[in-house]
Design the sequence.
């Protein structure tokens, strides 16, 4: 039996966007705690959003080379359930927190994802995103899905340039544990579009028919 694919809506900055995502079936929402991001949110604002969420919606903090204190502070104030590291964090750094984590890998030709899976074996999964020289994530561009090995031993979350028009095909081709979307459901950066979220969720459901 094919398991349903989970969905994370990332770059949430407003209560109404989080509630729309939850109502439409998202399993998780992501808060970006990298100050240089156009989707960055203050931890207290994220905490206010978390308080409004219904049960069984995970809250994920997204970081790029943070300090230990920043992770601990934001995780507490925002009420996080999962950490997502997008920088050059070592396994030792990621493992030191009381919360589970996933490690983002920026995929390009020559990257050994099996090696990364072995190195971050204590993670709850790898988030596979598009490589960019200037951006650690949120590029809005798709990478070559054929670069994902069939025998990857960790669950993986597919990210990078997903939207309602390609998510069904992406799921059919790669069979991820989950998909992650940000720019593909936005009106402008940091502001989500409920119609786009709904269309994206329908695309995920349509993948079961392909």
Sequence:
């Amino acid at each position: 039996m094919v398991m349903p694919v989970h969905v994370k809506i990332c770059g949430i900055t407003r209560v109404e966007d989080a509630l729309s995502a939850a109502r439409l079936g998202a399993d998780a929402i992501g808060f970006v705690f990298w100050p240089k991001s156009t989707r960055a949110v203050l931890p207290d604002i994220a905490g206010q959003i978390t308080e409004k969420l219904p049960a069984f919606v995970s809250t994920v903090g997204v970081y790029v080379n943070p300090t230990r204190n920043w992770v601990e502070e934001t995780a507490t104030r925002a009420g996080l359930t999962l950490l997502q590291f997008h920088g050059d964090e070592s396994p030792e750094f990621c493992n030191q927190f009381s919360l589970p984590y996933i490690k983002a890998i920026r995929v390009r030709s020559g990257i050994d994802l099996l090696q990364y899976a072995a190195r971050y074996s204590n993670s709850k999964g790898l988030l596979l995103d598009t490589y960019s020289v200037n951006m650690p994530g949120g590029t809005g561009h798709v990478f070559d899905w054929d670069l994902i090995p069939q025998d990857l031993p960790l669950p993986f979350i597919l990210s990078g340039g997903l939207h309602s028009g390609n998510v069904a095909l992406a799921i059919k081709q790669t069979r991820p544990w989950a998909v992650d979307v940000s720019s593909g459901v936005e009106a402008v950066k940091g502001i989500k579009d409920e119609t786009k979220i709904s269309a994206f969720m329908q695309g995920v459901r349509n993948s079961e028919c392909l």
